[in-house]
Specification:
Length: 260
């Protein structure tokens, strides 16, 4: 009988733990918002984290965006050529990036590079008792350590997604115009005629803003909640990347359903 009930007990324990963590991260998010005054008044703290989270991610964002755009150019041309409408390649590349691939792929790269680094950094500060030392000195660790990193991620993510889109469109141009030989004027005019500022560009940036909030919140929470050991920090970093990827894809479906 106990052997039959064991899987049910494990499922119940996992469910209770998931609900508890969801409630804890909600309270943690409220605490970040309530303690964000120092980050906004002493904005140099946030700017320093913007450099860490955003500027240092530029290389992977730019290179990945370029190659994704080149792949879209090749695949899009082959698909459109079947239907005799290869001139619409510019619109296809731009819409694919602005609506979907740009925000999602940039967020996944951001989670893998900056999100994991934030978790490891905060987790290491916890393991070496730096956060406890701040509390002893009457310094709020959420206001001093967590909030600047959270707002840095929120600020950086839309900018990185926009750069990803720009490089992706440029990659599509290189393939479509320079390699295949499509007319450059047709490439850009099709893009201009079919891309809407609000419906495509703004909605894509709103997506990236939500992704930035979700990824950064998960990253700082996992670091703050990490077990103060080497194995605990490593496990928290892994959870950040995996959870962020799942949340990005789920959130993308919800936002797409409402926006498009």
């Amino acid at each position: 009988m106990n052997a039959l009930l064991a899987p049910i007990r494990r499922l119940g324990a996992l469910s209770i733990n998931a609900i508890w963590r969801l409630g804890f991260i909600s309270r943690f998010f409220v605490a970040i918002l309530l303690n964000s005054g120092q980050s906004l008044l002493r904005f140099r703290l946030t700017i320093r984290e913007v450099y860490f989270a955003g500027v240092l991610s530029l290389i992977i964002i730019i290179v990945s965006g370029l190659f994704v755009g080149m792949v879209l150019g090749l695949q899009g041309y082959n698909t459109l050529a079947r239907f005799g409408s290869a001139d619409a390649l510019g619109a296809l590349v731009a819409l694919s990036l602005l609506r979907e691939l740009g925000p999602v792929l940039a967020a996944l790269l951001f989670a893998s590079r900056s999100g994991s680094a934030m978790t490891a950094e905060i987790g290491l500060m916890k393991a070496t008792e730096q956060l406890e030392a701040m509390s002893v000195m009457a310094v709020n660790p959420i206001a001093r350590v967590v909030a600047p990193r959270f707002w840095a991620g929120v600020i950086s993510m839309p900018i990185l997604a926009a750069l990803f889109n720009v490089m992706g469109i440029f990659g599509g141009y290189l393939v479509g115009v320079e390699m295949i030989g499509l007319d450059a004027g047709t490439f850009w005019s099709q893009m201009q005629n079919n891309v809407d500022l609000h419906y495509d560009v703004v909605n894509g940036l709103i997506k990236s803003l939500f992704f930035g909030m979700a990824v950064t919140l998960i990253a700082v929470f996992e670091g703050y909640d990490a077990t103060p050991t080497a194995a605990g920090v490593s496990s928290a970093t892994t959870r950040t990347v995996v959870t962020s990827a799942l949340v990005i894809l789920a959130l993308d479906f919800v936002l797409t359903a409402f926006m498009f």
